[in-house]
Backbone:
């Protein structure tokens, strides 16, 4: 993942630093997060990229949100307007890449979500992109507006394919999943409170 300075965000190194700061061994964190011990080691050494659901579970073991993990030093709470290059790139190795190594899901956030208690995102899903078979669940509310393409959204027992001009709004504690349901890139403008990623 690349941050606003152009540097590559090292998921493994960040997790290692946070785990050590918490005074936990890999085994202790794995037990707290209810994940296999080997998974912590593989993520920290960047041998595997965790899914969003897996990273969320691990961070829960540290008492951290995804937003705290990805934007630990963001201070610009007073900034009102944002150029394209000032959006926070939350795209990471949390999902699959295409045959050219490009991320299948691209997420860019407006400003400091933690300071405002609101996360507003521009999301782009390439054909075949999917947030994963493990459904997401987190204490928040989220909604969005489909700008382009087709997105299949599953929320609890409900599932629908939405196209341009259609929207969604739900309690994020319900298990949910997003998937590009077409053969063209899909784009969504979304909001979540409190911030999730």
Residues:
């Amino acid at each position: 993942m690349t941050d606003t300075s152009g540097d590559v965000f090292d998921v493994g190194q960040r997790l290692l630093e946070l785990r050590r700061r918490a005074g936990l061994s890999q085994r202790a964190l794995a037990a707290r997060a209810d994940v296999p011990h080997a998974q912590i080691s593989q993520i920290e050494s960047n041998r595997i990229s965790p899914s969003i659901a897996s990273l969320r579970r691990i961070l829960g073991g540290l008492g951290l949100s995804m937003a705290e993990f990805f934007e630990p030093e963001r201070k610009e709470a007073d900034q009102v307007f944002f150029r394209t290059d000032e959006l926070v790139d939350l795209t990471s190795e949390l999902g699959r890449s295409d045959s050219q190594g490009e991320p299948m899901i691209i997420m860019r956030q407006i400003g400091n979500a933690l300071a405002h208690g609101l996360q507003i995102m521009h999301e782009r899903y390439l054909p075949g992109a999917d947030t994963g078979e493990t459904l997401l669940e987190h204490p928040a509310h989220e909604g969005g507006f489909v700008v382009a393409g087709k997105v299949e959204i599953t929320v609890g027992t409900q599932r629908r394919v939405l196209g341009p001009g259609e929207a969604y709004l739900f309690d994020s504690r319900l298990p949910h999943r997003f998937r590009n349901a077409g053969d063209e890139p899909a784009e969504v403008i979304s909001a979540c409170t409190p911030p999730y990623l």
